[in-house]
Amino acid sequence: MTPFHQPPGVGLGPEAERDLAIALLGPLSETGKVAPLSYSARALRLLEPAVSRDPEDWEAQEAKANAFWAQGRRGEALAVLQTVLARAPRREAALTRAGTLARDLNQRPSAIDYWRRAVEVNPWVAGYRAFLCELLAGEGAWEELRPHCEAWLRLDPASIDARQTWVKYLLRTGRKGEARSEFERVRALRPPNLSRLQAWFDEESK
Are 146 and 137 in contact (CB under 8 A)? Predict the structure, then answer.
């Protein structure tokens, strides 16, 4: 057993070091037990031998991308994920992280592609549809957006964001009467920001 006063990773075997690095950047950080930025440099040192031994250790590669992301090195994080997806194109975690990073880096066509693929891999996650709809709306791709927004509403019918996106789709495609009816459903849900939404709808429906 590693003495408690030793830094994480010291005295462990190669596989244990790999597993520790992944835990530091994944489950432990997600539960708030460690801060990803605090451990990212150490985790990277532990991960490098793992990915050198097995470049197709996708879990380790994704953890490496997380470490870069935690350090604000988003371009490098995305490059790692692109390497993963070139060989394992249906890795769900890699697709969603790449989609978020590409969006943050203003690589919108790439972001749309990653989120399309994420939806194809797992069509049951409302959040994936939400990200894709946001990007498609930004591009004015209303007809492509339609089935994804419909699916989003089926998956999360109480989502104000989904209903607002649907109202926006109806307005942009000239269906103002349907948009007014849909906005009444938004009002019926009594969102806390209803006054702001009402102002938005009044402006958009002019």
Answer: no
Please, what is the Cα angle at 83 between 80 and 84, to 5 degrees? 90
Q: The whole model's pTM is what? A: 0.85
Tell me the three state secondary structure of residue 54. coil
Q: Which domains does the chain have, with CATH numbers?
A: 1-72 (no CATH), 123-206 (1.25.40)
With beta carbons less than 8 A apart as the criterion, state whether 65 and 77 touch. Answer: yes
| pLDDT tens digit sequence for 117-173 | 999 999 999 999 999 999 999 999 999 999 999 999 999 999 999 999 999 999 999
Q: In this structure, what token pair is assigned to residue 194?
A: 């209803």
Tell me the C-alpha distance between 186 and 160, whole Å: 7
Residue with tokens 């994944």: 26
CA atoms within 13 A on the CB side of 43: 29
Whether the Cβ atoms of residue 182 and residue 170 lie closer than 8 Å to each other? yes
Closest to 78 measured CA to CA, from 42, 43, 107, 121: 107
User: Tokens for 178?
Assistant: 């349907």
